[in-house]
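Appendix B. One record, verbatim.
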Amino acid sequence: MTETEILAKFKNTLPAHLGYRDLLSQKDLDQGDTSQRVGTLFALSALTQTDISPHPDFFRSYCKLKAAPGLYARSPNPSFWGHNPNNLSRDQLSVLKLGMVMNNKWEYLLETFIRQTMRLGFHQNTHRGGDLAQDPWKLPDYWNPGELSAFSRGLLGIFSYPITFILDLCLFIDLYLRTSDNWDSDNQLALNLLVANAKYPTPWSRLAMKRYLKTNFMSRLWNYHKDSDGNNGCEPLYWLFRLAYLKLYAYDPGTSAP
């Protein structure tokens, strides 16, 4: 498919996935993963220079998810369990950070870094969330090398290189852990690699991407995000991923792709 055809697919599928307050949602408009979807959307739109209207712009979108400086929620809907910031997990906030990095919103990233540092590196998810009769306390997630890499790239710029030169070695661990039963890993790994190579890349990030391009990651992204076959996905993001890899790496998954 050409860039024009892929962009048309993105534009055609986007409106049906705009849920509460017009933020990106799954097919059934569930917003349990909306913060992650929004972070992915803005990181990919910056990478591809894509107009994502009618979705709200970066400032309005992040403000709708912000509970306090450096503190975010899964959803802006006050009647939904994901509105409480105490269940925003690492897989959500880490992707929101990538959206900040790619859009050069260092002030948002700094707020988040300060807030998380005050928690000694722990995330916000002191509770599991969900529609539970009881929601007991849990040990929150801890920040990982990818998040520290995002902080470094977004806050230190070119001076991040001594840090990311070491942290980017962890990308090979992510590639190793990309097993057949780890069905949702590519949703974050594909974005982490794009950002690491777009913002002050290292030899390790380039080599990791070279290896990644030889995998079946795009078909796995389709299986994760597709709206068909009973899957409750977020199809616009698949097309934006596909556009990013085609524009930046001339990667085409071939005729077997949808």
